[in-house]
Amino acid sequence: MKDLWKPLLDSTALAVALQRLNDITPSRWCQAYYLFTAGAVVAVAAMPNEVSRRLVDYGARKFQSEVSRSGSESEGKGEHDTGRGRESEEEVKAKASRIQRDGKNWLLSLVSTLTSYGQVPHSWFITFYVASMACSLLWFWQFAVDGRVLRVVAGSQASPTAKGQDERGAVSASPVTLAQVGLAWTMMFLQGSRRLYEDLLVHGKSKSTMWIVHWVLGLSYYLFTSVAVWVEGSGAILDYQSTGATDYTMSPFKALVGISMFLYASVSQYRCHRHLAGLKKYSLPELGLFRYLICPHYFCECLVYLSLAIVSAPKGELLNKTLLCALAFVVVNLGVTAAGTRKWYAGKFGSKAVETKWNMIPFIW
């Protein structure tokens, strides 16, 4: 068996491929994850409406869709049960039409079957914020004790001369300073803490469910983002761990803009969530930013990650590229959900109730 695999293992092409994979930095892996998942969300949104809804909808929208479909099927059965004998020709035509339609909707049938398995409680959202806080604390502990896991990840991100280095030699300066790393970490920790508080004490209990794929996607996002907030400052982290060198400099303008944006987004999102939690079930929110946006809480979420990208931007750059990719995923994912929410509101309250509102981003979309 070893002789069978030996030519493959000795292959120059395989060695080159493995070396290239080894050369991919953690920030590149994070960026690839964000862009791939964003592309997957776009692909799902581009599918036929019924297929897309089964893959995307969860919570109240999922429940309402199922009720609507059940009602339509019941009405259809009632129509075919009446007038039997008098409308046999129409029944035959209707049956033939259903058979033809079902034959074309094999994808819908497949997706319906897949999403019927692995339904988990919507309350599992709390695991996202627990994971976010736990990861933030993990990386802080690794930094405090000069942990090997942090050193390995940071070493893989830093310059080639530092990659895999265990010696206490100095590392080339990082374009992201230790002050920026600390600020971005603190903001992410506060975000996770607030969302956990809201999930425990603000949001009402829900009996709705979501597909487990949604849960895995959300959990993996927070795991990757716990690394993304500091990984581009790996050089500064290794310098501090190796020589005690510190660089607390950062752009006052970026700090002011980023912190102000973060505080505004956090407070506004909290108010949105409190308003939603206090509404009568399945009623239309109208207070505050809801007067202008369908999903202002999603807009606030985008501002949170935009602020993180600003405060952790390398010198000479406007935004942190890794967190910019995270923002791209957030915009795409929540944008698709916001579009579905508009349709749900329009179907329940009438199109006039939402016709003057933007979906998620003021003056843009």
How does this model look, in words?
The protein is mainly α and 365 residues long. The chain has 15 helices and two strands. The chain has helices spanning 2-9, 12-23, 26-45, 49-56, 59-81, 88-104, 106-115, 126-144, 148-157, 178-201, 212-228, 234-243, 252-278, 296-311, 321-349, and strands at 119-121, 209-211. A two-stranded antiparallel sheet has the order 1-2.
Task: Give the topology.
Blueprint: H1 2-9, H2 12-23, H3 26-45, H4 49-56, H5 59-81, H6 88-104, H7 106-115, E1 119-121, H8 126-144, H9 148-157, H10 178-201, E2 209-211, H11 212-228, H12 234-243, H13 252-278, H14 296-311, H15 321-349
Antiparallel strand pairs: 1-2
Helix pairs in contact: 3-11, 3-15, 4-7, 8-10, 8-11, 9-12, 10-13, 10-14, 13-14, 14-15
Tally of DSSP helical segments: 15
Strand order of the largest sheet: 1-2
Percentage of residues in strands: under 5%
Mean pLDDT: 83
Assign a percent range to the helix content: 55-70%
Form type: globular
End-to-end Cα distance, whole Å, is 59 Å
Q: Oligomeric form of this entry?
A: single chain
**Number of E strands:** 2
Key traits:
mainly alpha; 365 residues; two-stranded antiparallel ribbon; 2% strand; 2 strands
Brief description of this entry?
Helices cover 68% and strands 2% of the residues. It is mainly α.
